[in-house]
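re: that chain from earlier
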Amino acid sequence: MRVLLIEDDPNTAKSIEMMLTHANLNVYSTDMGEEGIDLAKLYDYDLILLDLNLPDINGYEVLRHLRLARITTPILILSGSDDTESKIRGFGFGADDFLTKPFHREELIARIHAIIRRSKGHSQSIIQTGRIAVNLDAKTVDVDGMPVHLTGKEYQMLELLSLRKGTTLTKEMFLNHLYGGMDEPELKIIDVFICKLRKKLATATGDDSYIQTVWGRGYVLKDPGPLAQGAPIAIGA
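^ sequence. v structure.
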């Protein structure tokens, strides 16, 4: 999962980056509100962490601009102020949650996971697809309780597929999720990752129909069963 951090204090930003990285979250940061707005418009993030006290414009203005631009990415405000008025104002501008500094790493990570799950339509931390269970909090995958060992990139791809189960995802969406527009390899690398992921899931489940190819469009994760009639879907990568 990809998180945009908008925080001007270098020590705080570094600390948060370490927390998120330790939790296997991909974090991209900026210390300026205007740049944060541009990044949020340009790239697809699962969540935005927003400090209120920024050097160019305050966090409320960042929040207002993003919502006016119809950016629906969930936003968690980080603030040293614990007063009710600040919280009400933040929620009024469209924030999804409010966390007061200082905070514990466990609480921040738990809130991030909960917000992202809700935004994707999942109330629980485990997404079940047939016999495959993806634990969004623990970043693990198992089949009937037995662990499936995936690389970091393979897990990120299955996580994205699970969060958007039933939705066809393009190769560009996978690249953006994995690399965030930075040092992106060629699109064909996605086919390689999908092929390896599909083989591991097929070995664990005995079924190779979980990840389906939608020709000319991308890939989709579905519960095992008969293929929809008339859909341009094939199993091969």
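Residues 188-205 form the longest helix (18 residues).
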